[in-house]
What we know:
The chain is of the alpha/beta class. It folds into 3 domains: 15-199, 2-enoyl-CoA Hydratase, Chain A, domain 1; 200-299, no CATH class; 341-409, CATH 2.40.50.140. It has 16 helices and 14 strands. The strands form 3 sheets. The chain has a 6-stranded parallel sheet. The chain has a 5-stranded mixed barrel with strand order 10-11-12-14-13. It is rod-shaped.
Amino acid sequence: MRLLPAALLLALVALASYSYSETIVVEVTGTIDGGTASLVRRAIDRVPPGGLLVLQVNSYGGYLAPADSIAELIISSGAGCAVYVPPGGKAASAAALVAVACGRIYMAQGSVIGAARPYPDDPKTVSYVSSRFRSLAQRAYGDERIVETVVRFVTEALTLSDEEAVALGIARRAHSLDDVLRDLGAPGPRAVLTKDLFDQLLSVISDPLVSSLALALGLWLILAEIFVSGFQGYVVAGVLLISVALYGMHVIPPELLTLALMLSGSVLIVVEFMSPGLQGFGIAGLALLALGTYMNLRGRPIPTVELPVLGALAALGILGGLLGFVMFKAAQAVRLRRPSPKEALVGSVGVAKTDIGPAVPGVVHVSGEEWSAYSLSGSIPAGSSVVVREVRGLFLYVEKFPEESKSSEG
């Protein structure tokens, strides 16, 4: 029994001396949308074991689905997480949900938190969001008094100042980000992440108006491909737009969007190989493959590759190169189209069997067959050598053979 107090004391000492190995600071500003969810996902992928994720939140809120997605990412990752609301900042609406999901909230002077009543505030949505806040608050605090106050963020659109939140035990006081890190025992190296160009693009895509229009346009492009003869590329563009719209609506995960990009790029490259001339499909396909590869690498935790992965990538690269070579040779064979019999007649030399005039047709013998023909250069007497210049339907248009024209002129 004497071992229990000693073990408890050692555990408390270890807990007090614990420090995070690395800190990832994420600047969560502007609207909580798909780009914000992508930013947090990228940050969580970078948090190493024993690392800490700090969200510096200054947002009026945003959309429920991305905020829900961020909450799920934070909880499922198991990473240490804290939220810091800077001086004069705000964690309102969807941003308040993210803050409560994180669990440890630090607020500076002049900051506020709350005002999370959804819009439109129909009973079903209010019930879901209030239950979501209740569940997250119970996980973070465990104090029923605090939980009920957090639920009032939704049911009463309650907003708390920094002093009120600290007094109620919802948040802790912090004057700066350094104060937060010191309190958490995380003074070590830190990396600050903000939205990159790709995150900003996802923010645009996740706007409900943009995603709805993209979905409608994608459907129209697929219908256009169905009713237009021949492959025009509309169906690929339509599938991509629908995939992007569904991703922006948080219906499909990033992995499916990446798969759609890679498959669409591969299809376009195959079409380019099989079509004569430069169609632009190949360039678009390479761009889509590059974007899909970037999304795959972008979402990988550091280190990005290991020896087995490198071996698999090398094998797939060699196989892809062999398939590409075979497809290229097959495309060359397809492009070597034999000319039709009528096209082969152009440039052939024959003999006029009858007189031939520009308005009155005659008969010529060309390539072992007799054809009706018109003259393109005055009257041509029977027995003259002629050369075929054009084929129009069942008629040949001929001229005197150049050598014979010169001899007759002489």
